[in-house]
Automatic annotation (TrEMBL):
Protein name according to UniProt: Ysc84 actin-binding domain-containing protein
Keyword list, A-Z: Signal
Organism encoding this protein: Parahalioglobus pacificus
Region forming the signal peptide: 1-21
Length: 185
């Protein structure tokens, strides 16, 4: 019970710390986001998604782990018309047959303005999944938009076996005007 309390307190501190951070798209963030986008752009199967989407959110580094119950966390950036418009955080809780941990990058494509609007309002989630990743890495592909959103994952490493049900939450934090112009805040 004490371990559970410590774990919940640590998760709460981690989650609230992200909200208190200033929303700045600085050079290190730009380098990570650019590298993640380039990794997805190098996959020819994703060309049509880049061409057809009105926006996309990229998460350069996300982490998920579980042992019966688990969670995931990541921060990323929302791109609209090729420009960064917001920082996005991902929180996930899940339960099921899962064991291990993995680091991955992901990208979410929005085909319509309505889907993007739902995402910005926080009315957006994916639930239920099966996942098998190993240290060398792997990839998960979805065949099309469902209904107006497509999610792609590139596993960077770890060992995770999973068949779980859960919920993801995405929070969108618009950038300050000075971050958009490249001037320091």
């Amino acid at each position: 019970m004490r371990l559970l309390s410590v774990g919940l307190a640590a998760a709460l501190a981690l989650c609230t710390g992200c909200v208190w951070q200033p929303v700045v798209y600085d050079e290190p963030a730009q380098e990570k986001a650019s590298a993640a986008v380039a990794a997805f752009e190098s996959d020819a199967r994703l060309n049509r998604f880049f061409q057809e989407s009105v926006a996309y959110a990229v998460f350069p580094d996300a982490f998920r782990a579980g042992t019966g119950f688990g969670g995931a966390f990541g921060t990323g950036w929302l791109f609209e018309s090729g420009d960064v418009s917001a920082r996005v955080t991902l929180f996930e809780a899940f339960a099921g047959a899962d064991l291990g941990a993995q680091v991955y990058r992901s990208i979410i494509f929005f085909r319509t303005e309505a889907a993007l609007k739902d995402f910005r309002r926080g009315n957006f989630e994916f639930t239920g999944q099966a996942n098998a990743a190993h240290v060398v890495g792997g990839q998960s592909l979805t065949p099309a938009y469902h209904p107006d959103v497509a999610l792609f994952v590139q596993v960077k490493g770890g060992l995770l076996l999973e068949a779980s049900v859960g919920a993801q939450r995405y929070d969108v934090f618009p950038l300050a005007e000075s971050s958009l112009s490249g001037e320091p805040e």
